[in-house]
Amino acid sequence: MEVYGAYGDGVARIRGAVMENQLQMRQVEASLLGFQKGLLGVEREMMPVYKLTEQLRGTQKNIDLSVLALRQINENFVVAHELAPVLLNGSKFDQDEYIKALQKLLVATAFLEGHRSYEGSVKALDQAKELLVQVRRKCLADFVSIVSVLSRGERENDGALKWVEPSKHDVARAAQLLDCLLISGVDQKELLREYGKQRFDAIRMFVGEDPSGGSMVFDLNTPITTLAKHLNDFQVTIEAERMLAGLIYSNEDLANAAFRYAAHQVLESWKKDIDVSLRSSKQLDAVKLLLVHDLLLSRLKALESAVLPPLLLRDREGKGLEDPWILSKAVNAIVTDLAETAKQKLFNFQPGLVEASGDRTVTRDGNVHPISSHTLNFLRKVCEQAKPLKILLARDADVSAVAFVDTAVTQLIGALTAKADQLKGRESLKQLFLINNFGYVANSLPHCIQPEDADLEKQLHSLIKPRVEMMRNDALGAFIHLSYVSFKENLNDPTEKLQYAKGGNVLTLESGRLLKEKYSKFNEQLEELHKTQRTYVVAEVPIRQHLIRTAVDTIIPSYKAFYEKYSVIQFSRKHASRYLKYTPQAAQNLLKELFSGETSPGDKLSEISSS
């Protein structure tokens, strides 16, 4: 019992302690609630103070901003006056300092532009803009001055042009001025135009003969070797200009644009020189144009490589000088235009000769006409330049070198035939003219000796030559028939039986008249033949000998037989010698004088006046 009583007392004391603790906690909680209410009250009392403090902070911030703005306004209002000494005397100041001053001027200009409402802002803006214009003008003048002498040309011992690489100091100076111009907002097209003009002026001093003119001295009338040197000068110059633009302009786009503006003027001047040469009063030989075209083609790849735009710009489109491909197009246009002109000259060669040739040499002696010799000389030159000809004609799939040569000969034959047709009423002279000219053509056709020109050689000597020889032989047969065959008809025996007078060996008047007519007609025909054909010329000795031999073989046997048969008969009482004027030997001697080309003054004057 005592144990249970002690245990109960302990429990009672614990309970009492717990209850006391709970009471104390309630008291603490009540105190905390009261403190919280007090804090809330203090906060309510301090809120206006907090708001006022925040307002004061905002006001201070606005004051600071206003002070900063006023300071900035003050600085920008006087910036033109302060920076003018630096910007207008850039050479006396460090480049970094100059750039900072220029940037400060640009910032001030932009600020004043956006604060025009401020009193005095417009005036300050005008001053800043005026200073900026002066800075641009001065920078551009300095830039142009350096660019014009930055790269100089000089001739080496062999006469080749060489462009001296500019010094690093000059390049750096030009690049600095360029940076200033770009920072100042300069018109880039104006800058590029001025750059191109100055570089072209510098180029003309070393490439052109007249620095004040626009010619690049590419005169097509000069020898090919000289043109090759000039073309090499152009290539070296263009390559040097590309390198120079890359040194000055750090931006690849701008560098290529500057190069285009400079190089395009070189190409335009080159094209102008070619056009002037083609329009000059001195006619250019078609073969010369062929050689010039071949020269340009041999340099085309190098020139195209020199003007090829950078990879990053090749897909870009543009008009005029903004087109990255304009230089490539200009180079190809020069070659293409020259090719077309060369082809026109080649194909118009023969008609031009026909129009220019005269007729008087045709009507006088039937000799070889100038158009034959000119055309054969032309074909000879063409064969010497067969490779360039094939390259030129390869641009046109419809025409080959073989077809061209065939056309040239065909046109010549047509022209000669047309010339011969002008000899109306003089058929024998017409045929002799064709004999001489066709024979000259057949014997003078050039040879194309290079193995790769075997097709031309075959066309000329296996196809064209036999054809022309056949035409010559046809004309030869016609000439012989017209000139000599008619003699035999007049030397036939009289159709009527000869009658003798009674009691003698003298023919009657009627029978004598028949023989007189025969002899008179033969004499007249022989004299006329001798007079006419003695003045004729046969260019080929074998043909001349053949014609004389044919004349003798055709006429003399018939005449000799007639002469021997009837000369012993007395057919004329008083003037037999008049009719028996020529013995067969004398007639043969006259025939051997044919085609000597001799003309008496009276005969020559008569023939010229009849032409």
UniProtKB/TrEMBL annotation:
Chain segments annotated as transmembrane: none
InterPro entries for this protein: Cullin_repeat-like_dom_sf (IPR016159), Exo70 (IPR004140), Exo70_C (IPR046364)
UniProt KW Transport keyword: yes
One Pfam family named in its UniProt record: Exo70_C
Ranges where the Exocyst complex subunit Exo70 C-terminal domain occurs: 238-592
UniProtKB keywords: Exocytosis, Protein transport, Transport
Any GO molecular function: phosphatidylinositol-4,5-bisphosphate binding
GO cellular component terms attached to this protein's record: exocyst
An example Gene Ontology biological process: exocytosis
Protein transport among keywords: yes
Family that this chain belongs to: Belongs to the EXO70 family.
Role description: Component of the exocyst complex.
Official protein name in the record: Exocyst subunit Exo70 family protein
Native source species: Phytophthora nicotianae (strain INRA-310)
Source lineage: Eukaryota, Sar, Stramenopiles, Oomycota, Peronosporomycetes
